[in-house]
Write a structure and sequence with these properties.
Deoxyguanosinetriphosphate triphosphohydrolase-like protein, hydrolase, dGTPase activity, PHydrolase_assoc_dom, HD_domain
Length: about 375
Amino acid sequence: MNDLAPYAVSSANSRGRLIKEAPPIGRSEFQRDRDRVIHSTAFRRLEYKTQVFVNHEGDLFRTRLTHSLEVAQIGRSIARNLKLNEDLVEAIALAHDLGHTPFGHAGQDALNDCMKEYGGFEHNLQSLRVVDVLEEQYGAFDGLNLCFETREGILKHVSRKNVEKLGEVGERFLINQRPSLEAQLANFADEIAYNTHDVDDGLRSGFITMSQLEKIEIFSRHLWQVKRDYPNIGGRRLIHETIRGMINSVATDLTLQSKSNIENVRPKGIDEIRSAPCLIRFSEKIKQEQQELKTFLYDNLYRHFQVTRMSNKAQHTIEMLFNAFNSDIRLLPTAYQIKFSQYGHQAIADYIAGMTDRFAIREYQRLFIISES
């Protein structure tokens, strides 16, 4: 990566790892981070964790795994155009959801409610805990021992009460600084991916319709362009080409607006990036269009009665599991009973957050359903 901008993060200017290691051979420090994330147990579990729809609802809906791969692809493409460190963007993108609960945001909200007397639950913080503590693969350290910049990038937001416990990796929240441009970019790539791909999954499910989306500016504009270029197109091809155009346009806008912001500030290094306002941003027009799309998805997809039913069942499952383990820790697997003596109720949160959708459902059945088999 000899063509990196001077304000990009490189292996040479990284703030290193919690446990010092010999430099990797044949790959960069951030390629090593990416590889460790991909080979982690938590990453494999993302295949069976929900994006919007519960995992067993359909085979073609996105999961946390496919979402993370899409975020990484979008992030790498934009990073290349901005001369940022693609490998760091990819490592952050692949790791950002490692701490997510089963059942998506419904599961996270339920676990946070259950943990409110014990410090709460934040999935960003849990993702950091996964890579710092919970992964058990290496002889020399707990977790994955990732670079500071990857760990920092995972923390998109965190509450004040928890950030004070994080030390150096959470310091920017206390002194009002920004993370690297690579971390900023991974955050926006996440937004691009979930907005556009939730449209796709929403249409596939039938919970939202083309006629509804035609009233949304960014969708309507690209739908018209596709119909103009391909007059006989229809069905899935029409949807795919429209969403493809949306992704391309917002990614291009983010690239051009961010380039302009960077040129105005003219940062010479990472320290100037940290003290500047957030430089990775959409133009005002695209920002407003993205917000319109978000609002539409919230009102029509995430609050659709069938999604609400799934969410309520998910919340009930998480609450029942937590309450059962909390009332009698002997119901926990032996390893987590031992961890409870060390971490307290955080061990219960670790166990539940690590579950896939289907494992959580089976665990619920094992605890509460009497089976004849």
